[in-house]
Amino acid sequence: MIVVPAAAYWQGSDDSSALALSMEKPRRLITIDEPFAVSVHEITMAEWDLCASTSRVAHHNRLIMAGEEPIARSSWSPGTMPKNTSTG
User: Fold this and answer.
1) Residues 6+ positions from 72 with CB-CB distance below 8 Å
2) Are the CB atoms for 12 and 25 separated by under 8 Å?
3) How far is CA 24 from CA 14, 30, 37, in A?
4) Could you tell me how far CA 64 lies from the centroid of its own chain?
5) Which of 1, 13, 14, 66 could be disulfide-bonded to 24 (CB atoms 3.0-4.6 Å)?
6) Which residues contact residue 48 at a Cβ distance below 8 angstroms, ignoring those fewer than 6 apart?
7) Alpha helices in the chain (DSSP H)
8) Ramachandran region of residue 12, left (φ > 0), alpha (ψ -120 to 50) or beta?
9) What is the pLDDT of residues 6-41, one digit of tens each?
């Protein structure tokens, strides 16, 4: 795990940049209000299941993800995983 510190930074390209892609504009200020930890490596389904079974993390629906497969379609919402769109 690494800690992403609370900070502010500019994301995107300046409007005057001739080499910037359109999706890189407009440039905007991103602010991280509180530091947070993020894994340096992929989290496997087995690791997530262990975490979810030992804490109050919301459980999630999944079709075929299991074992040593990496987590997919994860959510930015704290302690949640997305629901399968076909089963709700």
Assistant:
1) 65
2) yes
3) 8, 14, 26
4) 20
5) 13
6) 71, 81
7) 45-54
8) left
9) 999 999 998 888 899 988 999 999 999 999 988 888
The two three-digit tokens of residue 10, written as one number: 């500019």
Residue 64 CA to residue 46 CA, distance in Å, equals 13
Position 7, amino acid? A
Tokens standing for residue 75: 């959510």
Query: 12, exposed or middle or buried, with CB in 10 Å at 0-12, 13-18, 19+?
Result: middle
Q: Outline where DSSP puts E strands in the chain.
A: 2-4, 7-11, 28-32, 36-38
- Does the predicted TM-score (pTM) go above 0.90? no
- Residue whose structure tokens are 């496997």: 44
